[in-house]
Amino acid sequence: MSVTWLDDRIAGVRAASVRARLVGSGVLLLVVGVVAGLTWWAWDAGHLDTRLVQVSGTERIPAEQVQAIAGQAVGTPLVAVDVGAIEEALRELPLVLDVKVERRWPRTLGVVVTERVAVAVVPSRGGGFDVVDAEGVVLATSQTPPAEVPLLRVDVEAAGADTLAAAREVLAALPVDLQRRTTDISATSPADVRLVVDGLDVRWGTSADSDRKVEVLVGLMDTVPASVYDVSAPGAPAVLP
Questions:
Q1: Cα–Cα distance between 179 and 37 in angstroms, integer?
Q2: What one-character DSSP code corresponds to residue 41?
Q3: pLDDT at res. 171
Q4: In which element (H, E) is residue 96 found?
Q5: What angle do CA 42, 47, 52 make, to 5 degrees?
Q6: Is the pLDDT at 213 greater than 90, yes or no?
Q7: What's phi and psi for 54, nearest 5 deg?
């Protein structure tokens, strides 16, 4: 093997290596150029800017009210929209229980609203009646109680939402005929729910064992005349003349 042949072989290998590096560098530059071009196309040229806000889930909340808040993102690149900040702002609306803001490519922002639902009417501290949801959040106030939701005499601010929940659970446990005979449901704590049935006071206690309490109450009212029936401990009920 001659020295000249070996030198030529080494030179060829070096040349191939240089060509490979040049080709690799060229591919890298091409990729960078493509990415830069797409970035400009999408960002600087505004092709992926937010153009539309789609709102769903609203019935009592005016959709325009939601649009006014979420619509501030229009014109912002969709990828740069702060969806968390929009959700936080929308949750400040009184009737919003929850909200989800999502990017819908290429140019749409979706807003899915879950509204609070009225579950009861309670006396308002300022007079009249407050329509509240399950958490005791006031949704509306009126001078007369709406007929669509039950009237429960619970001071939610003082007694808490769990007391409201206990009163609702007792009401739901009453059979239809007993509900019709019940003219008042009140509670000062989850353990002190009271009813007025046929004009007579009923001390119900907690919402636990309500089915058993219904049986005991009906049996007592049918057989024992009294002004007060205490079924808070259904295994040992009491009456007052």
A1: 71
A2: I
A3: 97
A4: strand 96-104
A5: 125
A6: yes
A7: -105, 125
How many C-beta atoms lie closer than 10 Å to residue 216's C-beta? 18
Distance between CA 236 and CA 224 in Å, rounded?
A: 15
Provide the Cα torsion 106, 111, 112, 116; round to 10°: 180
Query: How many angstroms separate the CA atoms of 89 and 70, rounded?
Result: 9
H or E element that contains 39: helix 3-39
CATH number of 52-115: 3.10.20.310
- Return the domain boundaries, the chain: 1-45, 52-115, 149-240
Rounded CA Rg of the chain: 35
Q: Is 21 exposed, middle or buried (0-12, 13-18, 19+ CB in 10 A)?
A: exposed
The Cβ of residue 37 has, within 10 Å, a number of other Cβ atoms equal to: 10
pLDDT band for 38, please (50, 70, 90 cuts). very low
- pLDDT tens across 118-156, in order? 999 999 998 999 999 999 999 999 999 988 899 999 999
* Angle at 137 (CA atoms; ends 133, 143), nearest 5 degrees: 85
Which residue shows structure tokens 């969806």? 83
Question: Partners of 120 in the beta sheet?
Answer: 132
| pTM to 2 decimal places | 0.73
What topology is assigned to 149-240 in CATH?
Rossmann fold (3.40.50)
- Give the pLDDT band of residue 194 (cuts 50, 70, 90): very high
- Could you tell me which residues are beta bridge partners of residue 111? 55, 101
